[in-house]
Amino acid sequence: MAAGSEINLNDTAAGHVNVLFFGQLKERLKCDKLTVDIAHTLSISAFKHMLVEQNPHWQAWLEERDVLCALNQTMSSSDELVKAGDELAFFPPVTGG
Amino acid sequence: MSISIKVQTMDFSVGEQHGALCSDNKSDGAVVTFTGLVREFSSGDNVIALELEHYPGMTEQLLQSIAEQAQTRWQLARISIIHRVGYLALGEQIVFVGVTSRHRQAAFEGAQFIMDYLKNHATFWKKEHFKDSSNWVEFKQSDKQALNKWKK
């Protein structure tokens, strides 16, 4: 559940973002979830780049492959903005059914 | 109109699901159900089981949205979708889609639309397990092409 409604309007966009990984991506990054502190609102692509700077070996999987992204459980494009309290998920193309 | 969405590890009974779609239903003359079974995915390479992962919360919302889209396109009174997750052996039931309608064509098309959208949009990921190894299933272009017939 997104905690967006809990953000104090007088506050800045600083706070933490919950990040989730699924499927093959989770396995390759050896990470299923993490909490990232951000100082201000930033785009999903900038957020991904920040993750890669912190974990350089993630680049091949997060930035160079076809990775889908959901912001607060809605499919999103890389120019959408992430703010504190958001849930951001990255995953490969789906293969259910 | 009713929509039932379930993502579960448990198996399901097609008979019970069919019964629920028919029960106390005097308006619909057509019931269409589809059941998907675990099969060998890779070119016949001894798959012994599938492992299904999903995004809890988002998956259920997406399935609900797919069912609602189907109801805006066809007169589908009842829709039931069940998708299993976890470890599933060959031959086990993996997915169920059941719909009711006044007429058969709407029921056939509605069920097919739901399956095509589920395969392309619902947040499930499959991993094949072999005797000594495992492999994530890649997205299939043929599944994407199956969507084209529903685009206007």
TrEMBL record, chain A:
SUPFAM superfamilies: MoaD/ThiS. InterPro entries: Beta-grasp_dom_sf, MOCS2A, Mopterin_synth/thiamin_S_b, ThiS/MoaD-like. Keywords: Nucleotide-binding. GO terms for biological process: Mo-molybdopterin cofactor biosynthetic process. It comes from the Bacteria. GO terms for cellular component: molybdopterin adenylyltransferase complex. GO terms for molecular function: nucleotide binding. Belongs to the MoaD family. This is Molybdopterin synthase sulfur carrier subunit. It comes from Pseudoalteromonas espejiana. The gene is moaD.
Automatic annotation (TrEMBL), chain B:
Its EC number is 2.8.1.12. One of its GO terms (molecular function) is molybdopterin synthase activity. Pathway: Cofactor biosynthesis; molybdopterin biosynthesis. It catalyses: 2 [molybdopterin-synthase sulfur-carrier protein]-C-terminal-Gly-aminoethanethioate + cyclic pyranopterin phosphate + H2O = molybdopterin + 2 [molybdopterin-synthase sulfur-carrier protein]-C-terminal Gly-Gly + 2 H(+). GO terms for biological process: Mo-molybdopterin cofactor biosynthetic process. The keyword NAD does not apply. Keywords: Molybdenum cofactor biosynthesis, Transferase. It is an enzyme of class 2 (transferase). Pfam families: MoaE. Belongs to the MoaE family. Heterotetramer of 2 MoaD subunits and 2 MoaE subunits. Also stable as homodimer. The enzyme changes between these two forms during catalysis. This is Molybdopterin synthase catalytic subunit. It comes from Pseudoalteromonas espejiana.
